[in-house]
Amino acid sequence: LDNQVQVDYKNLHGRSAVLDCVAKSGDGRLFNVEIQQEDEGAIPKRARYHLGLMDMNVLNPGEFFDKLPETYIIFVTQDDTLGYRLPIAHVDRIIKENGAEFGDEAHIIYVDSSKHEDTELGRLMHDLHCADAEKCITVF
Question: What share of the chain is helix, strand, coil (3-state, %, to 5)?
Fold first, then answer.
């Protein structure tokens, strides 16, 4: 696993972006985790843009598109940004006519950090809000 914080992804023909945390798993999957205090910073089109920037910066000239890794953009938001009242929302592309997965291996995940339910995710979100490490409940 490899990770970097505040990674500057350049776009030579448009807007660049500094991504909060970019990690690569041992099997080659890429993850961008964004911690968002404001809802405006976590709009769906920003997630789409982050996916595009990551894709543009991973292939070398001449490499085939099948070499693109599976990619995850994860927005951890202060509240229910999407408005579905879910602790976590997985967004993947599907073919509307038959409901089949498109298979581009691009994933967007929204996590509502205000949900502190008695689940692994809820306990982790509780700990994310803890100012005192002694009050953290997640054990790794």
Answer: 25, 30, 45
Quick one: which of 59, 54, 57, 83 has its CA closest to 71? Answer: 54
Strands (E), 40-138: 71-77, 88-91, 106-112
Residue 130, Cβ neighbours under 10 Å: how many? 12
**Which single residue is written with the structure tokens 């970097």?**
4
Q: Cβ(42)–Cβ(81) under 8 Å?
A: yes
Residues in the chain: 140
- pLDDT single digits (tens) 26-64: 999 999 999 887 767 788 999 999 999 999 888 888 999
Beta bridge partners of 70: none
Between 134 and 29, the higher pLDDT residue = 29
Burial 98-114 (b: 16+ CB within 10 A, else e): eeeeeeeebbbbbbbbe
